[in-house]
Amino acid sequence: MEKSTHSFKYKWHSFWLDWHETKEHYYGSSRHQKKKIKHAFKAATVKNDLLNLSSTSSSNLEEINSAPVKQHSAKLNPKVTES
What we know:
Blueprint: H1 2-27, H2 30-56, H3 58-65, H4 69-76
């Protein structure tokens, strides 16, 4: 659950970063430049948190990835026989 909220926050701040970048280009005001910097910082912070969270749970990913592939492919395609 925590990982999904981090990815949502990253998408949210990335959207606003792009939004204010476009507005800054169109209007040229410093207001949008300040907000662009704020959202860029927040997006970078959330991305770092997300990477740290995924690196701490990498042991769970290793357990999932260690399952044999042939077992799963035989279930999906019964014509394939294991040799």
